[in-house]
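INTERNAL AUDIT FORM
Audit reference: QA-55
Scope: verify that the stored structure record matches its stored sequence.
Auditor: D.O.
Record contents follow.
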Amino acid sequence: MKRPPLGEQELALLRYVIDHAPVSVSEAAEEYGKAQGLARTTVLTVMERLRKKGYLERARDDGGAYRYSPCVSQAELLRSLVGDFT
């Protein structure tokens, strides 16, 4: 399945989620967002954009918060990025 292309910020956050999944928006904002100077709302917006593009999926945890996991592996992501250059 061909997915829409990713922007730089989307790609960076997707790589973070792949390495730390499953992850909540709060966790991603605290660990990734702070280091990048991004507000929690920006992290949420980018994660939802990635979900709508088919790169992330979400599920509720026992506490009712959404946890995001990748729909692609690191290897698949790299293959698709290389394919974009050919």
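Auditor finding: record pair retrieved intact. Helices lie at 8-20, 25-36, 40-52, 74-85.
Action required: none
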